[in-house]
Write a structure and sequence with these properties.
about 160 residues; mainly alpha; Hypothetical Protein Yqey, Chain: A, domain1; about 75% helix
């Protein structure tokens, strides 16, 4: 992911795509900061040359998903505040972020995974939702957000 991001930054510089370049650099900074945070949590000091040194692919995906979530929330607030131009900017940034995230699960695939998880834990009511979610989250691994996942589980259990 870091290699792809670096290549995209270079290409954006060549293309003089100012907004795209700004967003790609922001993503790289988010990843680098997460690497520094993880390194600090391990009790190490010194400069982090690359986020790839300390972050695994799954951790990088989580960082980018959090950035996309923040932008979705911002876009929603901008739309509520009648600031359409700012909402469109946030949505354009989300599209760039999504280039680096795994493809989202289709509705049918998600329903299949939910049914599998329900059968696996033997869930029969809404009281078992926590168990189902716990079994389901590793299988989904960043291909669906928590809100979508929760809605699918609620629908299947009710």
């Amino acid at each position: 992911m870091i290699e792809k991001l670096s290549q995209e930054i270079k290409q954006a510089m060549r293309d003089k795509a100012k907004e795209r370049l700004q967003m790609l650099r922001s993503m790289m900074n988010d990843l680098k900061n997460a690497g520094i945070q993880k390194k600090g949590d391990q009790g190490l000091t010194a400069e982090v040359a690359s986020p790839a040194e300390y972050l695994e692919e799954a951790e990088m995906i989580k960082v980018l998903q959090a950035a996309a979530k923040r932008r979705r929330e911002s876009a929603e607030l901008f739309r509520d505040g009648d600031r359409i131009e700012l909402a469109q900017k946030e949505e354009a940034e989300i599209l760039i972020l999504e280039e680096f995230l795994p493809a989202a699960l289709s509705e049918d695939d998600l329903k299949g995974l939910v049914a599998e998880a329900i059968a696996e834990v033997g869930a029969g009511s809404m009281a078992d939702m926590g168990k189902v979610m716990k079994a389901l989250q590793p299988k989904v691994a960043g291909r669906a957000d928590g809100r979508t996942l929760s809605a699918a589980v609620k629908e299947a259990l009710s």
